[in-house]
Amino acid sequence: MSVRELVVLGTASQVPTRHRNHNGYLLRWDGHGILFDPGEGTQRQMLRAGVAAHDLNRICITHFHGDHSLGLAGVIQRINLDQVPHQVTAHYPASGQRFFERLRYATAYRETVELTQAPVAADGPLAVTGTFTLDARRLSHPVESYGYRLTEPDGRRILPERLAAHGIAGPDVGRLQREGVLDGVTLEDVSEVRRGQRFAFVMDTRLCEGVHALAEGADMLVIESTFLDEDVQLAVDHGHLTAGQAAAVAREAGVRHLVLTHFSQRYADPEEFERQARAAGFEGELSIAQDLMRVPVPKR
Protein backbone atom coordinates (compact mmCIF):
# COMPACT_ATOMS: atom_id res chain seq x y z
CA MET A 1 0.00 0.00 0.00
CA SER A 2 1.35 3.42 -0.93
CA VAL A 3 2.22 5.83 1.87
CA ARG A 4 2.67 9.57 1.48
CA GLU A 5 3.58 11.27 4.71
CA LEU A 6 5.99 13.72 6.30
CA VAL A 7 8.08 12.41 9.19
CA VAL A 8 9.43 15.33 11.22
CA LEU A 9 12.85 14.58 12.69
CA GLY A 10 13.78 18.03 14.00
CA THR A 11 12.30 21.52 14.14
CA ALA A 12 14.80 23.88 15.79
CA SER A 13 16.47 26.80 14.06
CA GLN A 14 20.20 27.41 14.62
CA VAL A 15 20.31 26.13 18.21
CA PRO A 16 18.72 22.82 19.31
CA THR A 17 16.77 22.81 22.55
CA ARG A 18 15.82 20.16 25.10
CA HIS A 19 12.66 19.47 23.12
CA ARG A 20 13.68 20.31 19.55
CA ASN A 21 16.45 18.72 17.51
CA HIS A 22 18.14 20.46 14.61
CA ASN A 23 16.19 20.27 11.35
CA GLY A 24 15.42 17.02 9.56
CA TYR A 25 12.39 15.97 7.50
CA LEU A 26 11.66 12.72 5.69
CA LEU A 27 9.02 12.64 2.98
CA ARG A 28 7.71 9.14 2.29
CA TRP A 29 6.24 9.13 -1.22
CA ASP A 30 5.00 5.65 -2.09
CA GLY A 31 8.21 3.60 -2.04
CA HIS A 32 10.50 6.62 -2.31
CA GLY A 33 12.13 8.40 0.64
CA ILE A 34 13.45 11.97 0.44
CA LEU A 35 15.43 13.35 3.38
CA PHE A 36 15.41 17.14 3.59
CA ASP A 37 17.99 19.21 5.50
CA PRO A 38 19.60 16.70 7.89
CA GLY A 39 20.90 18.85 10.74
CA GLU A 40 23.03 17.65 13.64
CA GLY A 41 21.55 14.59 15.36
CA THR A 42 19.47 13.45 12.38
CA GLN A 43 20.84 9.89 12.45
CA ARG A 44 19.63 9.41 16.04
CA GLN A 45 16.27 11.04 15.27
CA MET A 46 15.84 8.60 12.38
CA LEU A 47 16.30 5.74 14.85
CA ARG A 48 13.73 7.23 17.22
CA ALA A 49 11.25 7.73 14.38
CA GLY A 50 11.68 4.25 12.93
CA VAL A 51 13.36 5.52 9.75
CA ALA A 52 16.06 3.24 8.33
CA ALA A 53 18.93 4.17 6.04
CA HIS A 54 17.36 1.81 3.50
CA ASP A 55 14.36 4.17 3.37
CA LEU A 56 16.42 6.94 1.77
CA ASN A 57 16.55 7.44 -1.99
CA ARG A 58 17.33 11.16 -2.12
CA ILE A 59 18.80 13.82 0.13
CA CYS A 60 17.86 17.44 -0.54
CA ILE A 61 19.84 20.23 1.12
CA THR A 62 18.37 23.72 0.92
CA HIS A 63 21.58 25.49 2.00
CA PHE A 64 24.78 24.95 3.95
CA HIS A 65 24.08 26.47 7.34
CA GLY A 66 24.86 23.99 10.10
CA ASP A 67 21.32 23.45 11.38
CA HIS A 68 20.39 22.19 7.90
CA SER A 69 23.44 20.11 7.01
CA LEU A 70 25.70 19.11 9.92
CA GLY A 71 23.98 15.73 10.16
CA LEU A 72 24.85 14.90 6.57
CA ALA A 73 28.17 13.27 7.51
CA GLY A 74 26.52 10.80 9.87
CA VAL A 75 23.66 10.02 7.50
CA ILE A 76 26.03 9.30 4.60
CA GLN A 77 28.20 7.08 6.75
CA ARG A 78 25.13 5.21 8.01
CA ILE A 79 23.96 4.64 4.44
CA ASN A 80 27.33 3.04 3.73
CA LEU A 81 27.51 1.10 7.00
CA ASP A 82 24.09 -0.44 6.30
CA GLN A 83 25.08 -1.11 2.67
CA VAL A 84 21.93 0.39 1.19
CA PRO A 85 21.39 -1.63 -2.01
CA HIS A 86 20.10 1.18 -4.20
CA GLN A 87 21.52 4.43 -5.52
CA VAL A 88 21.08 7.51 -3.32
CA THR A 89 21.07 10.94 -4.98
CA ALA A 90 22.04 14.16 -3.18
CA HIS A 91 20.79 17.58 -4.32
CA TYR A 92 22.32 20.75 -2.86
CA PRO A 93 23.32 24.27 -3.98
CA ALA A 94 26.21 24.04 -6.41
CA SER A 95 27.94 26.97 -4.69
CA GLY A 96 28.27 24.76 -1.59
CA GLN A 97 30.18 21.98 -3.32
CA ARG A 98 33.15 22.36 -0.98
CA PHE A 99 30.90 22.04 2.07
CA PHE A 100 29.25 18.91 0.67
CA GLU A 101 32.65 17.34 0.03
CA ARG A 102 33.87 18.18 3.53
CA LEU A 103 30.78 16.66 5.11
CA ARG A 104 30.80 13.60 2.87
CA TYR A 105 34.42 12.85 3.78
CA ALA A 106 34.51 14.32 7.28
CA THR A 107 36.07 11.12 8.67
CA ALA A 108 37.36 7.79 7.40
CA TYR A 109 34.84 5.09 6.47
CA ARG A 110 34.34 2.40 3.87
CA GLU A 111 32.22 3.46 0.90
CA THR A 112 29.83 0.71 -0.17
CA VAL A 113 26.98 2.70 -1.72
CA GLU A 114 26.59 4.60 -4.97
CA LEU A 115 25.97 8.20 -3.83
CA THR A 116 25.25 10.42 -6.80
CA GLN A 117 26.02 14.11 -6.39
CA ALA A 118 23.53 16.29 -8.28
CA PRO A 119 24.23 19.95 -7.39
CA VAL A 120 21.55 22.56 -8.10
CA ALA A 121 22.67 25.60 -10.08
CA ALA A 122 19.39 27.09 -11.35
CA ASP A 123 15.62 26.94 -11.06
CA GLY A 124 13.97 24.01 -12.78
CA PRO A 125 13.41 20.25 -12.77
CA LEU A 126 15.94 18.00 -11.02
CA ALA A 127 14.41 14.58 -11.52
CA VAL A 128 11.44 12.91 -13.17
CA THR A 129 10.19 9.55 -11.87
CA GLY A 130 7.07 7.53 -12.50
CA THR A 131 5.27 9.18 -9.57
CA PHE A 132 6.67 12.71 -9.32
CA THR A 133 8.75 15.50 -10.78
CA LEU A 134 11.21 17.18 -8.39
CA ASP A 135 11.86 20.88 -8.99
CA ALA A 136 14.00 23.52 -7.26
CA ARG A 137 13.51 27.28 -6.91
CA ARG A 138 15.99 29.86 -5.65
CA LEU A 139 15.17 31.50 -2.30
CA SER A 140 16.44 34.66 -0.58
CA HIS A 141 18.92 34.01 2.25
CA PRO A 142 22.42 35.29 3.12
CA VAL A 143 23.86 32.12 1.53
CA GLU A 144 22.57 30.47 -1.64
CA SER A 145 19.43 28.53 -0.82
CA TYR A 146 16.89 26.51 -2.80
CA GLY A 147 13.44 25.21 -1.98
CA TYR A 148 12.05 21.97 -3.41
CA ARG A 149 8.70 20.88 -4.84
CA LEU A 150 7.28 17.48 -5.81
CA THR A 151 4.49 17.32 -8.37
CA GLU A 152 2.62 14.13 -9.16
CA PRO A 153 1.38 13.76 -12.78
CA ASP A 154 -2.34 14.32 -13.20
CA GLY A 155 -4.43 11.17 -13.42
CA ARG A 156 -8.04 10.18 -14.13
CA ARG A 157 -10.85 9.51 -11.65
CA ILE A 158 -13.42 6.97 -12.89
CA LEU A 159 -17.04 8.10 -12.45
CA PRO A 160 -19.39 5.14 -11.75
CA GLU A 161 -22.45 6.94 -13.11
CA ARG A 162 -20.78 7.46 -16.49
CA LEU A 163 -19.68 3.83 -16.59
CA ALA A 164 -23.28 2.78 -15.93
CA ALA A 165 -24.59 5.12 -18.63
CA HIS A 166 -22.35 3.40 -21.17
CA GLY A 167 -23.11 -0.09 -19.85
CA ILE A 168 -19.51 -0.79 -18.83
CA ALA A 169 -18.95 -3.02 -15.80
CA GLY A 170 -16.76 -5.79 -14.40
CA PRO A 171 -13.52 -6.69 -16.21
CA ASP A 172 -14.36 -4.23 -19.00
CA VAL A 173 -13.59 -1.34 -16.63
CA GLY A 174 -9.99 -2.49 -16.23
CA ARG A 175 -9.69 -3.08 -19.96
CA LEU A 176 -10.86 0.47 -20.67
CA GLN A 177 -8.35 1.85 -18.18
CA ARG A 178 -5.50 -0.11 -19.75
CA GLU A 179 -6.36 0.46 -23.41
CA GLY A 180 -8.01 3.89 -23.25
CA VAL A 181 -10.96 2.94 -25.47
CA LEU A 182 -13.61 0.19 -25.45
CA ASP A 183 -16.23 -0.21 -28.20
CA GLY A 184 -15.98 3.46 -29.08
CA VAL A 185 -16.10 4.67 -25.46
CA THR A 186 -12.95 6.52 -24.37
CA LEU A 187 -11.50 6.79 -20.91
CA GLU A 188 -12.23 10.52 -21.01
CA ASP A 189 -15.92 9.74 -21.56
CA VAL A 190 -16.21 7.98 -18.19
CA SER A 191 -13.75 9.87 -16.02
CA GLU A 192 -12.52 13.28 -14.95
CA VAL A 193 -9.08 14.72 -14.33
CA ARG A 194 -7.65 13.99 -10.88
CA ARG A 195 -4.99 16.58 -10.21
CA GLY A 196 -1.74 15.12 -8.92
CA GLN A 197 -0.60 15.80 -5.37
CA ARG A 198 1.88 18.59 -4.77
CA PHE A 199 4.35 18.95 -1.92
CA ALA A 200 6.56 21.98 -1.25
CA PHE A 201 9.50 22.43 1.10
CA VAL A 202 10.62 25.99 1.90
CA MET A 203 13.33 26.70 4.44
CA ASP A 204 15.41 29.75 5.33
CA THR A 205 14.30 32.66 3.18
CA ARG A 206 12.78 36.11 3.06
CA LEU A 207 9.61 36.62 1.06
CA CYS A 208 10.54 36.26 -2.61
CA GLU A 209 9.21 34.98 -5.93
CA GLY A 210 10.59 31.51 -5.25
CA VAL A 211 8.54 31.12 -2.07
CA HIS A 212 5.28 31.85 -3.89
CA ALA A 213 6.17 29.64 -6.86
CA LEU A 214 6.95 26.66 -4.63
CA ALA A 215 3.79 27.09 -2.54
CA GLU A 216 1.33 27.57 -5.41
CA GLY A 217 -1.47 25.00 -5.15
CA ALA A 218 0.47 22.74 -2.77
CA ASP A 219 -1.43 20.02 -0.95
CA MET A 220 1.21 20.28 1.77
CA LEU A 221 3.58 23.17 2.37
CA VAL A 222 6.38 22.69 4.90
CA ILE A 223 7.74 26.16 5.56
CA GLU A 224 9.97 27.92 8.04
CA SER A 225 8.48 30.40 10.50
CA THR A 226 11.53 31.25 12.54
CA PHE A 227 10.09 34.42 14.07
CA LEU A 228 6.79 35.72 15.36
CA ASP A 229 5.30 38.75 13.62
CA GLU A 230 6.47 41.26 16.21
CA ASP A 231 10.05 40.39 15.23
CA VAL A 232 9.54 40.92 11.51
CA GLN A 233 12.59 43.19 11.21
CA LEU A 234 14.78 40.44 12.63
CA ALA A 235 13.30 38.10 10.04
CA VAL A 236 14.12 40.47 7.20
CA ASP A 237 17.62 41.18 8.50
CA HIS A 238 18.53 37.49 8.85
CA GLY A 239 16.70 36.12 5.80
CA HIS A 240 13.73 34.43 7.46
CA LEU A 241 9.94 34.42 7.64
CA THR A 242 7.48 35.10 10.42
CA ALA A 243 4.49 32.91 11.24
CA GLY A 244 2.12 35.47 9.72
CA GLN A 245 4.17 35.81 6.55
CA ALA A 246 4.33 32.04 6.04
CA ALA A 247 0.59 31.68 6.62
CA ALA A 248 -0.20 34.54 4.23
CA VAL A 249 1.84 32.81 1.53
CA ALA A 250 -0.12 29.60 2.15
CA ARG A 251 -3.45 31.44 2.07
CA GLU A 252 -2.67 33.19 -1.22
CA ALA A 253 -1.33 29.97 -2.79
CA GLY A 254 -4.38 27.87 -1.87
CA VAL A 255 -2.36 25.45 0.29
CA ARG A 256 -4.45 22.66 1.82
CA HIS A 257 -2.18 21.66 4.73
CA LEU A 258 0.36 24.09 6.18
CA VAL A 259 3.20 22.80 8.36
CA LEU A 260 5.09 25.52 10.23
CA THR A 261 8.56 24.67 11.53
CA HIS A 262 12.14 25.94 12.16
CA PHE A 263 11.36 27.86 15.35
CA SER A 264 13.74 30.20 17.14
CA GLN A 265 14.66 29.11 20.64
CA ARG A 266 13.63 32.55 21.92
CA TYR A 267 9.94 31.55 21.92
CA ALA A 268 8.52 29.39 24.72
CA ASP A 269 4.91 29.11 23.51
CA PRO A 270 4.50 27.24 20.18
CA GLU A 271 0.76 27.94 20.21
CA GLU A 272 1.49 31.58 19.44
CA PHE A 273 2.69 30.50 15.97
CA GLU A 274 -0.72 28.92 15.36
CA ARG A 275 -2.55 32.01 16.61
CA GLN A 276 -0.59 34.29 14.32
CA ALA A 277 -1.03 31.96 11.35
CA ARG A 278 -4.80 31.97 11.85
CA ALA A 279 -4.77 35.74 12.32
CA ALA A 280 -3.12 35.98 8.89
CA GLY A 281 -6.21 34.38 7.41
CA PHE A 282 -5.09 30.81 6.72
CA GLU A 283 -8.13 28.54 7.11
CA GLY A 284 -6.81 25.17 5.91
CA GLU A 285 -5.29 22.34 7.91
CA LEU A 286 -2.46 23.62 10.10
CA SER A 287 0.26 21.75 11.96
CA ILE A 288 2.84 23.29 14.28
CA ALA A 289 5.68 20.86 13.77
CA GLN A 290 7.01 18.85 16.70
CA ASP A 291 9.91 16.44 16.65
CA LEU A 292 8.95 12.88 15.62
CA MET A 293 5.42 13.78 14.50
CA ARG A 294 3.98 12.25 11.32
CA VAL A 295 1.74 14.23 8.98
CA PRO A 296 -0.10 12.54 6.05
CA VAL A 297 -0.05 14.35 2.73
CA PRO A 298 -3.72 15.25 2.00
CA LYS A 299 -5.30 12.86 -0.49
CA ARG A 300 -6.83 13.93 -3.78
Most strands sheet = 7 strands, mixed
What is the helix/strand order?
EEEHEHHEHEEEEEHHEEEEHEHHEHEE
Tell me, briefly, the overall form: globular
Strand order of the largest sheet: 6-5-4-3-2-1-18
* Strand segment tally: 18
Structural class: alpha/beta
Explain what this protein looks like in three dimensions.
The chain has 300 residues and is α/β, with parallel strands linked by helices. Helix content is 26%, strand content 26%. Strand 5 (88-91), helix 4 and strand 6 form a beta-alpha-beta unit.
Keywords, separated by commas or semicolons:
300 residues; 10 helices; 7-stranded mixed sheet; alpha/beta
How does the SSE layout of this entry go?
Layout: E1 4-10, E2 24-29, E3 32-36, H1 42-49, E4 58-60, H2 66-69, H3 72-81, E5 88-91, H4 97-104, E6 115-117, E7 124-128, E8 133-138, E9 146-151, E10 155-158, H5 160-165, H6 171-179, E11 181-182, E12 185-186, E13 191-194, E14 198-202, H7 209-215, E15 220-224, H8 232-238, H9 243-253, E16 257-261, H10 271-279, E17 285-288, E18 294-296
Parallel strand pairs: 3-4, 4-5, 5-6, 14-15, 15-16, 16-17
Antiparallel strand pairs: 1-2, 1-18, 2-3, 7-8, 8-9, 9-14, 10-13, 11-12
Helix pairs in contact: 9-10
